[in-house]
Amino acid sequence: LPERGLRRAGDERSKTMFGFSLTDEQKSIREMAHEFAENEIRRVAWEYDRDATWPEQIILQAHELGLMNTHIPEQYGGPGLSALDGCLIEEELAWGCSGIATTLGANGLAGVPVLLAGSEDVKREYFGELVEAPKLASFCLTEPDAGSDVSGMRTRAVREGDRYVITGSKSFITNGGYADWFTVYAETDPEAGHPGISAFLVPRTIR
Amino acid sequence: VIVDKHEDKLGQRASNTATITFNDIEVDAKYLLGEENHGLKIAMMTLDRTRPGVAAMREPRSDHEHSTPDQARKREQLAAGPLSASEGPQRPALKRDRVDQSGTTSTPFQNAIRFLILWIHGYG
Q1: Is ipTM strictly over 0.85?
Q2: Cα separation of A184 and A94, whole Å?
Q3: Which 3 state secondary structure label does DSSP give A173?
Q4: Which residues of B touch A188 (CB under 8 A)?
Q5: Would the pLDDT of A93 be above 80?
Q6: Beta bridge partners of A184
Q7: Which residues 158-177 of A are in CB contact (within 8 Å) with B?
Q8: Which residues of chain A make contact with B9, given a CB cutoff of 8 A?
Q9: What are phi and psi of A102, to 5 degrees?
Q10: Cα–Cα distance between A160 and A36 in angstroms, integer?
Q11: Is the pTM value of this prediction over 0.80?
C-alpha cells in the first residue's frame, strides 16, 4: 500500500507546530489549475453544458498540462501528487465546470483500485497508457437494479482455468462511452453477498 | 464490452455517463485486482481516497466568485423573463441552484477543518 502521512512536510510546515498553509509547490499547482479553469473551461462551460458537448479539446489540453492522472506514482510515469494536491486541482477545475471537472478527474477513481491492488505488470501497462496519451478509464460499480447497494449486485465473474468470464451491466458510468479500460466489480461468490465481490481491470478491446 | 446508453442528464452534461454491458467477457486472471472476494474492501478504500476530491469540487474557494457562468446566465434569464424556445432545452430548476443563490462560502476555518481531516487520514 502507498505510504501514508504528510509527504510534503517542508520547512514552511515544520516551523509551526500545526500549519495549514500550502507549500509553494501546492500554491503554484493551484494557480495553474485556476488559470486553466478560467481560460479553457469557464468560458465554454455554459455552451458545453447546454449542448452536452464532449470536451475533447479540453481533455487533450489538461492531459498535456498534467492536470489529469495526478495520483499516478512517479515510477509509472505519473506526477505522484498527494491526495491534497489532487483536491486543490479538482476544486479549481470544478469552479470552471463541475461536469468537465468530473470527466477530467474520473481516471483517479478508476485508477485507485489498480494502485491499491493491481500487480506490477498491470500497473506499468495501464498507468503507462494513461500517462502517455489522453486516454480515459472508468469505475464500474453501480448496477441498474442495485444502485450503490452492492449486495444486490448481479454481475458475475466465473473462473475458468486461468481466465474469468464476466457477465453483467453497469449503469451511470462516468466516461463509460470513451474509456479504454474499466475497473469492474463482480460477484465471484454470489451466495456470499458483500464478501463475494471481486475487482477486475477489463480492457475495452477484449471481446 | 458494449456501451448501451448515454444518459441525458439534468446537470454536468459535458460529462459522459453511460450504461456498460459485459457479455461473457473473458479476461486473464492477471486482471483480478487483489485477492478474490476482496473487491468490496478495495472499492471502499478507493472511495476513502477519492471522495475528499468530490467534496472539494462542491465548495469553491472563498475568494472565488461563487456562481458559475451557467448559474449567472440563468439568473439573468430569470430576470429577463421566461426562456424562449431558441435558448435550448428547458430544464426544471434544480435544488442546487437555490443552494448556490444563497451564496455558500467556505471560511478559512472550514478550510482548516477540511485540511485537518485530510491530514488525519494521511492524505497530505
Answers
A1: no
A2: 26
A3: strand
A4: 36-37, 39
A5: yes
A6: A140, A200
A7: 159-160, 162-177
A8: 52
A9: -65, -45
A10: 48
A11: no
